[in-house]
Amino acid sequence: MVAFGKKLKANQIQEWQGHYINYKLMKKKVNRYAQQIEVGAQNRLYVLMDFAKLLDSQIEKIVLFLLEQQGILASRLSNLREQHDALSQQPDGLKVSEVKEAYRAVGRDLLQLLFFVEMNAIGLRKILKKFDKRFGYKFTNYYVKTRANHPYSLLQQVFKHVGIGAVVGAISRNLADLQDHQGSYISIYDQPASSLTDPVIDSINAAVDRLTNSTNFLHFLGKHALIMQEELPTPSEDHAVDQRYHFMSLLLNLANTFLYMVNTYIIVPTADNYSLSLGAAATVCGVVIGAMAVAQVFSSVYFSAWSNKSYMRPLLFSSIVLLVGNVLYALAYDLDSISVLIIGRLFCGLGSARAVNRRYISDCVPLKLRMQASAGFVSASALGMACGPALACLFQTNFKIYKITFNDNTLPGWFMVLAWLVYLLWLWISFREPFHEAKENIAPLEVNAALLVNEAVESGSTQPLLLNSKAKEEDEDQECDGAEEDSNDIQKPVTSLVLAYRLLTPSVKVQLYIYFMLKYAMEVLLAGSSVITTYYFVWSTRHVAIFLACLGLTVLPVNMVVGSYISNMFEERQVLLASEIMVCIGTLLSFNVVIPYSVLQYVGSGLITFVSAEVLEGVNLSLLSRVMSSRLSQGTYNGGLLSTEAGTLARVVADGTITLAGYLGEGMVLNVTLLTSLFICISSIVATCFTYNTLY
């Protein structure tokens, strides 16, 4: 992996070199401030104000140059407007093509200007993070709040870049007008925006979205996948990814995600009845359901490591292991063995290839399609979660073929055997193994890293951002930064989960704990639903399956509302805390205390808990991606693996709690599991409030 500072140096526009943020000067200032404060030669208030003035000066330099370049582009567009008007009087096919290409040339120059802004935004983010880390201040919070909405602030220009939209609009309108339908009376404003596409315009819109943190359903949903990309990928890297991209292979990758989630939840409505039929208690369903999660704790690690070398082989292995696991699960009924049942589910967990699914999108999908692919990954998971229980309610039959029983308990297993067999054949025929670098340090970063405006002032690694071109200056800059990690060391991936955990900051630990909490609350609700509804309401398998399917179907609509509206109206940390409180309220409402327990109370409180946990998951993963160490962005033991392990452990603990509570009696399962969930939820709220006040 190329060091970030070197990549920026290689990609900067030499003619504009003097207009970039002087990162080296500001970093030396930070070091000098530290020395002066240490010897008592300077007070902290002066340091804060002096550094704020320096930042203001650097931002003013950037913005004035940005306005100057916008003026040049506007002048070129004005000249093209005159040529365009002349063509409307005397159409000339050759001249039309020349003018269209001239408009595209303006668009390409605008892209360069946006890239200039992007690099400076990264530099600003990194120096703010460096200052906060060095002095323990919340300077970033102060600086952004005081500059964000002030009428004379130039900070908005860096991220909102007023005027860019007008240039994009002028280029788009004129390119559309110069299409082959000259003489048509249809205006650009009479057509849907989606039909007015051009490669240059698409690239500009993507760059603007990265800078403005354009929040919509697709982007919000894509964040759930925890798939990271380079902040500034080089053209050669982009080309390499384009060469690896294969649509059918991506589709197979998403199909694996969908089938695995179906496999996870298809047995939930019948797990208690299956356990009873084998002579075990109904609450042993917690062990049956949780066995898959137990095995996934280990499979996530070896699949993450395996994906460093191949994609197809781990997917083949995953399919075979899942096929065997489901055969054992289905045969357990005729073998009358609860052990075979649990072993079958363990095999299913050992076939979890979600680390490979994420890695494939990160490595083999072009940057322009990665957000759509990430959203597809999340959608496939959500649909699988809804389809699993829905399919279970269709298997209400009972017959035998050659002494093999097919009923509502075994048919989910046999159905998944058939599904994985078909998938295995499809995978073998259609999947194309892409060229794969064998180096671990080019491994996945399973954390979303699109350049967001909030990220631009709240997080970032401590890698040096050097915009000067001389190697000697780079060496001097490294010496001035002796208190920090070496830039080469920062790029080295961690080699164990223990080392990865040591790199976690308090804020990251809190975000992971929140993730643990929400997964625990969701698993208690889902895995315990069959036992609880049977005990209190005498629900059939069909009723349980419909309830779980309806919960699963809320995932995409809820995320659409949050991604399109709520996240644009409130800060993510506000949504985070509100969602935690709602999970807590939903848990409290679920308790069976005095009044007779009703279906309305159970369904209503469960819906509040589940929907709130969905919202919480989205904003939590978004925030987690911004506070994760850069060293956890690569290799086998990356940030995505840590979050996956946190969620999987939550499921294991929740399923184990259900089984242990069963020893106290089925009537105690509801309140015991909810009591544990409530304790974890309250502790996460306390941790969030503490973190918000001290770190953010």
From TrEMBL:
TM segment ranges: 250-268, 280-303, 315-332, 338-356, 377-399, 411-429, 512-538, 544-563, 575-595, 669-693
Entries under Pfam families matching the protein: MFS_1, SPX
Membrane disposition: Multi-pass membrane protein
Domain SPX: 2-145
GO cellular component: membrane
Lineage: Eukaryota, Viridiplantae, Streptophyta, Embryophyta, Tracheophyta
Keyword Mitochondrion among UniProt keywords: no
GO molecular function, one term: transmembrane transporter activity
Superkingdom in the source lineage: Eukaryota
Protein name: SPX domain-containing protein
Subcellular location: Membrane
Record family assignment: Belongs to the major facilitator superfamily.
InterPro entries on file: MFS (IPR011701), MFS_Domain-Containing_Protein (IPR051068), MFS_trans_sf (IPR036259), SPX_dom (IPR004331), SPXM_SPX_plant (IPR045264)
Record keywords: Membrane, Transmembrane, Transmembrane helix
